Amino acid sequence: MDALSDWAAAHRPGRLDEIRGIAAAGVRLAVPLRTRNEILGVLLLGERPLRAGFTAHEKQLLRACADQFALMIENARLTDRAVEQETLRRDIALASDVQRRLLPEAPPRAEGAEFAAASVPARRIGGDYYDFVELPDRGIGIALADVSGKGVPAALIMSVVQASLRIISSEGGVPPPRLVARMNEFVYRSTPGNKYATFFYAELDEPCRRLRYVNAGHNAPYLLRAGRDIEQLTVGGTVVGMFSEASYEEATVDLHPGDVLLVFTDGVPEAHNPEDEEFGEDRLQLLLRQTAHLQADEISARLSAEMKNWIRDAEQYDDLTFIVMKVR
Question: Which fold has domain 104-327?
Answer without folding.
Answer: Phosphatase 2c; domain 1 (3.60.40)
